[in-house]
């Protein structure tokens, strides 16, 4: 199963935002297919059935993120679980569960990636790979060198979330990754154009509303 090779990398991928006390479980088609034991261990094994009332079961039923305390009647130990619905390229749905001690207070963490959608598949896109974000035809687009993806998050939310990661709002329709700026030019109306480091040298206008802000942030 090609998805399993990716799952083996999950513990190292999640190190930055999952507490060491957490265990990690992935379920698909009614059973667990991956388990990594952390400090709080339910002793699950690949092949174990997903039981009613578990976080994985609730994720499959709700089709969305679930966070809940589960009592000991389900797996013998009570736990606090945070579950996410994942989609494999094959179309298979999987439930990722972060298993924590009961009544654990999960801190809201800014993850180092955004989830983007292309066709019917969702991808984690790391901040450094995002060149710019765009609001276009009532959708928000994430542009990388390789491809473009949609996200349900509007630009005004992303502006706040990405401000600490070298992203800059330059227009009501654009946020750029400062690390991908190649140069800044004047346009025909004495405004500013930002040229990005792409093979096509994508040009994005800085609206008059943001000119002073951009100058202050970039120091020119």
Structural summary, described in words:
It is a single chain. Helices cover 19% and strands 38% of the residues. It has 6 helices and 15 strands. It has helices at 2-7, 10-13, 55-62, 72-75, 155-162, 208-218, and strands spanning 23-28, 31-36, 66-70, 79-87, 93-100, 113-118, 121-126, 132-136, 139-143, 148-151, 167-171, 174-177, 181-186, 192-196, 203-206. A hairpin with a 5-residue loop joins strand 4 (79-87) and strand 5.
Features:
elongated; 220 residues; 15 strands; 6 helices; alpha+beta; five-stranded antiparallel sheet
Strand content: 35-45%
Strand order of the largest sheet: 2-1-5-4-3
What characterizes the major β-sheet?
A: 5 strands, antiparallel
Residue windows where pLDDT falls under 50 for at least 5 positions: none
Count helical runs.
Answer: 6
- Helix content estimate: 10-25%
Structural class, from secondary structure content? alpha+beta
Estimate the mean pLDDT confidence.
87
Total beta strands: 15
Shape: elongated
Roughly how many Å apart are the termini?
Answer: 53 Å
Radius of gyration: 21 Å
State the order of secondary-structure elements, H for helix, E for strand: HHEEHEHEEEEEEEHEEEEEH
Summarize the structure.
With 220 residues, this protein is α+β, with helices and mostly antiparallel strands.
């Amino acid at each position: 199963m090609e998805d399993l090779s990716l799952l083996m990398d999950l513990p190292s991928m999640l190190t930055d935002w999952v507490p060491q006390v957490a265990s990690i479980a992935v379920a698909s088609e009614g059973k667990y297919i991956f388990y990594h034991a952390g400090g709080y261990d339910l002793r699950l094994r690949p092949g174990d059935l997903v039981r009613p009332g578990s976080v994985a079961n609730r994720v499959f039923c709700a089709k969305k993120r679930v966070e809940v305390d589960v009592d000991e009647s389900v797996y013998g130990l009570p736990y606090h679980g945070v579950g996410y619905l994942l989609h494999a390229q094959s179309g298979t749905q999987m439930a990722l569960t972060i298993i924590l001690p009961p009544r654990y207070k999960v801190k809201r963490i800014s993850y180092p990636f955004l989830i983007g959608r292309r066709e019917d598949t969702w991808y984690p896109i790391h901040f450094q790979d995002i060149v710019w974000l765009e609001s276009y035809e009532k959708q928000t687009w994430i542009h990388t060198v390789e491809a473009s993806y949609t996200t349900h998050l509007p630009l005004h939310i992303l502006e706040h979330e990405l401000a600490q990661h070298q992203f800059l709002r330059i227009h009501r329709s654009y946020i750029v990754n400062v690390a991908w700026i190649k140069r800044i030019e004047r346009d025909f109306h004495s405004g500013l154009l930002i040229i990005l480091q792409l093979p096509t040298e994508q040009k994005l206008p800085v609206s008059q509303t943001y000119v002073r802000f951009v100058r202050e942030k970039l120091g020119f």
